Amino acid sequence: MISLLDLKKTKLEGDIILYHGGLPNTITLDLIDCNHLGIQQNKRGKTYGGFYLVDESSRTWAEYYARQRNGTIHGFLIDSSSRISETNKVIDRLSQEEREGFACSFDLLKGKDLCGRIQYVLFNKSIIKNIGEDHIT
Predict the structure, then answer these.
(1) How many Cα atoms within 13 Å fall on the side-chain side of residue 1?
(2) If pLDDT is split at 50, 70 and 90, which confidence band does 107 have?
(3) Distances, alpha carbon 114 to alpha carbons 72, 89, 93, 108, 118, in Å
(4) What is the pLDDT of residues 16-75, one digit of tens each?
(5) Which H or E run includes 96?
(6) Nearest to 1 by CA among 101, 115, 118, 130
(7) Residues 6+ apart with CB under 8 A from 131
């Protein structure tokens, strides 16, 4: 896997890099589960989940998660042709049905977490052009 610095060098105009902290060092595109059920916030009978990412404005949040887990932050190079829907709403707890609905028309949903930080939910992992990683302390 390439470094985040090398990933940034491959970025073309219009591409974006989104981040996730604390994934295994062995993560590959095949291992990303866009419908992963959340463990921390779920209650019985709920289907909250998804694969959440942050942009540069919330990168410190991803770094925090990386420090809490294994010290690894991953960057995902997202293709410029990706279909992104934006909302000012909190998107922390999207149900399986909501995620499936958005996935019919969009590759990513951009919104906010409960603290007002920008975050994205990935619906289509084929828009990921490459993955980079860095180890932080």
Answers:
(1) 21
(2) very high
(3) 24, 9, 10, 18, 10
(4) 999 999 999 899 999 998 887 655 554 555 566 789 999 999 999 999 999 999 999 999
(5) helix 96-103
(6) 130
(7) 1, 2, 7, 27, 28, 29, 74, 75, 76, 77
pLDDT at 134 over 90: yes
pLDDT tens digit string along 91-106? 988 888 898 999 999 9
Average pLDDT over residues 109-125: 95
Tokens in use for 33? 């589960």
User: Is the distance from CB of 79 to CB of 125 less than 8 angstroms?
Assistant: no
Q: How many CA atoms lie within 13 A of 133 on its CB side?
A: 14
Q: Which residues pair with 112 in a beta bridge?
A: 90, 118
**What number of residues does the chain have?**
137
List strands edge to edge, sheet with 128-135: 2-3, 128-135, 72-78, 16-21
Helix (H, G, I), strand (E, B) or coil at 93: coil
